[in-house]
Amino acid sequence: MLLSVSCLRAQDTLVYANPSEVGLDSTYIYTKVDSIMTLGIQKNAFPGAQILVAKDGKIVFHQSYGFHTYDSIQKVSLDDIYDLASVTKILGALPALMKLVDEGKIDLDQPFSEYWKRWAKINDKKELTLREILAHQAGLEPYIVFLNKVTTKNGKIKKRFIKNKAKRGFTNQVYNNLYVKNKFNRKMYRIIDRSKVSSEKIYKYSGLTFLIFPELVSQLTGQSFTTYLQENFYKPLGANTLGYLPKTKNFKNKIVPTELDTLFRKSLTKAWVHDENASLLGGISGNAGLFGTATDLAKIMQMYQNYGVYGGKRYFSEATLKEFTKIQYPENENRRGLGFDKPLIGNDTLPLKDAYPAPEVSLESFGHAGFTGAFVWADPKEKLVFIFLSNRVYPTRKNRNLYTLNIRGALQQVFYHGNLKNH
């Protein structure tokens, strides 16, 4: 187990415990979860996965199921490292932004162009605020496929952007024997500058600015994005596997593969970020690129659930965390917090099949899902942290049974229904 006895010194640090210690029925929980996970693997929703649940500051459930791939060779292990995809948004970009808001270096309601200067002269972007942007209320385009810029229509890689060996100006590694031009990020910023902004202010999910945030954080702090995150968050939390570019770090932990990529990398993507846009930034982005174990995710999610405190250390003010994790534009039928996802509006009235996430989560709860099959959720009211890690994109992203079977919502619901008093 990754959590040492020294953890016990601070009351708000996670320790392992039995479900019964927090009033949960072990038999009910294990029976239900095993049934849902067996179905998921049988229906090819994922080759394997793991679940970690913390209740009242105690890890009461941490189990792995299945294998890394459908050949059943490498079993899923509790200390496996996963590609977190869009969960990166709330564990990479957001902690940095929340700290900068806390310190008064960014104002949520000032034009974002005051900080990202290149937007100051762009008419449809100069007045957008960070609040609108983070709540997906700004009208920005959802996604731009930058892979189209480095490949021809026939799928051939353009040599002026990608090289097979590291050389001057091409030191950002995308994959084994693939290096992207170091200045490609500038091309991405220019394309984002030119992207259209809708005049209609409605909820429209957009990850574009998350490609920008690492550079912005670096400009505002004078440190590289990765150094800033490591020094301020991951290292003091003891989240040793949480970070970018795991291939370069010589972890003993196994790294779970993602997709058999036929478009770009022409092989099984493993230990390098799956998301193509993040890969073209050298694997370091605010939209994707983070990797980590379930226990390390639990530490940062527990800190969020505690509204900024973990292991006796305060990372953010309670006010900042509460601001970021509340619905910003409910009058617009927009459920989002600032970067954080929230339950559907009226979620508690919906049947499980229509709900997101489980209907029983509180209004105060928040989290995020990732394209590769990751999902993290914290519920401060119920003191419940739920983490689900899988590689549902293996062997292909066309695998959508994780969604159609609503496996994550069903699993999460078990821990709300599993109270000993009910059984």
What this model shows, in words?
This protein is α+β, with helices and mostly antiparallel strands and 423 residues long. Helices cover 28% and strands 13% of the residues. The protein has 12 helices and 15 strands. The chain has helices spanning 26-42, 88-102, 130-134, 147-150, 184-194, 208-221, 225-237, 276-279, 294-305, 318-324, 401-404, 407-417; strands spanning 15-16, 48-55, 58-66, 82-83, 162-163, 172-175, 178-180, 260-261, 267-268, 291-292, 309-310, 313-314, 366-369, 375-379, 384-390. The strands form 5 sheets. It has a 6-stranded mixed beta sheet with strand order 1-3-2-15-14-13, sandwiched between helices. A 3-stranded antiparallel beta sheet has the order 5-7-6, with no helix packed on it. It has a two-stranded antiparallel sheet with strand order 4-10. Helix 1 (26-42) runs antiparallel to helix 12 and helix 2 packs across helix 6. The chain is globular. The relative contact order is 0.18. Mean pLDDT is 95; it is low at 1-10.
What descriptors fit this protein?
423 residues, alpha+beta, six-stranded mixed beta sheet, three-stranded antiparallel beta sheet, 12 helices, 15 strands, globular, disordered N terminus
Provide the low-confidence segments as ranges.
1-10
Mean pLDDT: 95
What's the Cα radius of gyration?
Answer: 21 Å
- Subunit organisation of the chains: single chain
Range of helix content: 25-40%
Q: What order do the strands of the largest sheet run in, or round the barrel if closed?
A: 1-3-2-15-14-13
Euclidean distance between termini CA atoms: 30 Å
- Strands, count: 15
- Structural class, by secondary structure, is alpha+beta
